Amino acid sequence: MNKFSFVVYPLDIQNVHDYCSISKLAPASIIKMILKILPPFKISQARKLRSAQGAEIEGCFIVCPLLSEQIIAMKEEAVIKKILKAVRLGERNDANVIGLGALMGIYGKGGQVIAGETSVAITTGSSLASAAILETLKRAAALRKVDLAKAKVAMVGATNAIGQNCAQGLLGTVETIFLLAKNTGRLVELKELLNGQKSKTNIIDKGLVLDSVIKEADIIIFTTSAIEVPSTATTDNLKKGAIICDIPSPRNISKEICNQRKDILVIDGAMIEPPETVRIGLKLPIKDGFIYACMAETMILAFEGQTEDDFSTGFKPDLNKIARIKDLADKHGFKIKFTSFGVPILNE
Description:
By secondary structure, this protein is α/β, with parallel strands linked by helices. It has 2 domains: 176 residues, no CATH class; 140 residues, NAD(P)-binding Rossmann-like Domain (Rossmann fold, 3-Layer(aba) Sandwich), CATH 3.40.50.720. The protein has 12 helices and 16 strands. A 6-stranded parallel β-sheet has the order 8-7-6-9-10-11, sandwiched between helices. The protein starts with a strand and ends with a strand. 47% of the residues are buried. The model has no long low-confidence stretch (mean pLDDT 92).
């Protein structure tokens, strides 16, 4: 039986309270100090998980105890060192494949540094997340009657794996893609790569100039959190009828903005419903029974027995891997869900 491990981190202080009620007695500053020195630990064991094909796996979830804001504030070497400790714990639990969740999968050249330090297959889940974003964007456009051929898309966090995959996947489908990211070197490389394919889509490098782009974007895709790239989106400057795919935590678009702007549609983009025989027992801030795409990809690879090689690592776009993991998700009964703030969109 194949085994997996998945590395998570607390999304916020409330997430810490969810798993450790006694932490409510301590101020946030003390909790942050403890998290920084606390070593990774196993938080949950998943046994006898069975896919739609009848394949069985088991695995565990390992906490890398750092909040998003701490991860971003730390030096990359320190973050990688702590992630690697979590991976070593996965190794000791006999994992055949180890998944790195969200920010964990961005550091170390998109997981490549971590992959080079272990013989266990590594994935960041970016391929299934990209597949889910591209599919749900099409569903959102159809729901809101947005003509993608005339749409302007702002890709915020364009140089990470999901951003590059989505830019590649939308090439030739939309009118314009605005590329926004902090890493100017990778931004130039991505623009050259996309322009080299000579599609009809306009590719515009905007660095981190969000203000003017937000006002004219029909679709905004946030692949990076509000902590890393502060969002200037407000109730006043979002384009009427805008569709916003907001996958990170913390969020870039709050529910308050949505309540004030009923014309916009915020979708999650990377939400997956596994088969009923796959229940992991974690408390997640989404609909009960749903999981994130990065978790799902790790389990799907274990179900398929595709554990010899690393899967989603690095930043280069790979549409073949997106198609491959989407096929495997269908095969094993994992469904891409059309949701907003973790709740299914009723009109799907």
